[in-house]
Amino acid sequence: MSRTFVGWPAFPRAAAAATQDMQLRSNVTRATGTIRGKRAKLVTERPDWEDLRDSAAALKDEVLAHLDRYLLQAEEQVTAAGGTVHWARDAAEANRIVTELVRATGEREIVKVKSMLTEEIGLDNALEAAGISARETDLAAAIVQLGDDLPSHVVVPALHRNRGEIRDVFVREMGRHGRPAPQGLTDEPAQLAEAARLHLREKFLKAKVAVSGANFLVAETGTVVVVESEGNGRMCLTLADTLISVVGLEKAVPTWRDLEVFLQLLARNATGERMAPYTTTFTGVTPGDGPQRFHLVLVDNGRTRALADRVGRQALRCIRCGACMNICPVYERTGGHAYGSVYPGPIGAILNPLLKGPDDPQTASLPYASSLCGACNEVCPVRIRFTDVLLKLRHEVAEGDAKVKHPVEKAALDAVGAVMEHPAAWNAAVRAAGRVGPLMPRKRLPGPLRGWTDTRNVPEIPKESFRTWWKRTDGGTK
Amino acid sequence: MSTGAREEILGRIRSATADLPTQSPEVPRTYLRHAPDVDPADRETVLALFAERLEEYGATVYRAGPAGLVSTLAEVLPAGRVMVPTGFPIAWLTQWAGEALTEETTPLSRRQLDGLDAVLTTCAVAIAESGTVVLDTGPGQGRRAATLLPDLHVCVVRAGQVFSSMPEVIGSLDPLRPLTWISGPSATADIEMIRVPGVHGPRRLTVVLLLEEDQSRDAVG
């Protein structure tokens, strides 16, 4: 069985351990620093960046407000184009549906395109229990799978591993699952990518069944959109006879034209590219081209629970670009595993409790895994107001079941304190966060603070932190 | 079972969104219709931007006028076995010495496609700002597997197919056709977020920009 986050310690304990791991911190700091730089450069290329964010947020709100209608429309279009649509209330039901579909083909080994949803529901283990081996084909997902590791980032699941560690995993594990790593493999990224190409080529050429997620599902046309870099996505989406796309309810967008908004935002914000190398869009089945059997599995698994939360539902706008992780000073110190979920970082701190409820001891501490610096608000392409949702969820934990709340609140606050205990590093991180732009809550504060904003606007929060100001002016005397 | 799940999920959605107004606020569309600082009527600028962005992502770009196209293709194509999808103008290949394979009668197997030296296609449209070529499996473009397995993709893009931005092209594409949006050759940034070219998709992308008569004269000089 591959590893899962089931039984993983809650954030306070996991974070305490992670912050002691100097190799991990160095890997995460280096990778997030690289991607922050690339993103910043490409975002400034677009004078209409804020307009694109406005449109994306509004489009997602429109979808969420009428999600029943949009999903029915998507179902109708996919069906008309020769696909079959399945609905799954929870992880177990989704896994059962996919397992049955694969079993019906008689295949024992299938290929997968990286999908956070299939990680969330534990699909690989469910398939393995049914005697089906699901091989990951995205480079980072393959690194995680071969290393019996866990994903730590939504865009780059192996972000916590450096090149040397990746080389060791390839040399040790590739031969056990197919073509071994080439003799004399070094830790050069180009050589590692070549090793992955050779190892997976054999699997693509044989694959009969593929499982994918989706970045977007266009309601108007029933079109599934998969954005990727390597071509492993194209291989899976094109070469298999049977394709099963497992898609969260929230992935819908209203119309085909709306992709002009999301496709212009996603890669810039996720990997610092104008477009990812490959975007595939397809609708149902195309005779003579690609899989002739297509199944779309729509998965709830807590999404309707999140949708019912008036403040928290904005978390469902998320397009999984990972920018909130890359900018977050807490994530940079703990890495992704400490969050105990396939969704780490600021989005994980709000999405997991919304999907699972505030009484889950694992997720209840996550709203505290933040210093509320607000950098995530500023980089979010769909304008999720993370800090609003974090405060609302903290309020819920504080008002909630006493057996969960007291230990969680205390331990979580202690843990965040410990993560931040190196003031010099912390100040540098907050200064970096401040540079992306001032935090400007435009509407109302959530939950217990709403009363305060009933009669006044939230003030602008200064670009300079109090600590910086104090240091610069020597306590206001200069 | 499945019908029960469908009705239950739809019911959950309706009760979760019951507090929301039925009429949503209008979606703002104030973002740019064209690439920033580019006049889409200024063809030379649009084409220059397209070439620049493609090259930035590791593609190789050639410019040729109608008179020079035949020799340019002979130069960029390997003298080996190349997939040339049905509908590709074979008159463009008169100087090339290699062997053209089509799928006119029977589709090639995956292993056969994998063993080819290149695939040569046209495209549906192209986007200058992001350096993107869009294939829609139309004439001269072949089915998706044929443009995926060979290690070199040579794509002929007519100048008139190049638009400045995504909003300019999206309405002209048919979502019922499978579309492949290609922005540079295959790449990965999965190791320490450093971009490494070439993983599974074609590791080399060559774009031949076919210019109109007058533009090509400028380009030759």
UniProtKB/TrEMBL annotation, chain A:
It comes from the Bacteria. One of its GO terms (molecular function) is metal ion binding. InterPro entries: 4Fe4S_Fe-S-bd, 4Fe4S_Fe_S_CS, FTHF_cligase-like_sf, Helical_ferredxn, LUD_dom, LutB/LldF, LutB_C, NagB/RpiA_transferase-like. Coiled coil: none annotated. One of its GO terms (biological process) is lactate metabolic process. Residues 309-338 form the 4Fe-4S ferredoxin-type domain. Keywords: 4Fe-4S, Electron transport, Iron, Iron-sulfur, Metal-binding, Repeat, Transport. NCBIfam families: LutB/LldF family L-lactate oxidation iron-sulfur protein (TIGR00273). This is Iron-sulfur cluster-binding protein. It comes from Streptomyces fuscichromogenes. The lineage of its organism: Bacteria, Bacillati, Actinomycetota, Actinomycetes, Kitasatosporales.
UniProtKB/TrEMBL annotation, chain B:
Residues 100-210 form the LUD domain. PANTHER family: LACTATE UTILIZATION PROTEIN C. This is Lactate utilization protein C. It comes from Streptomyces fuscichromogenes. The lineage of its organism: Bacteria, Bacillati, Actinomycetota, Actinomycetes, Kitasatosporales.
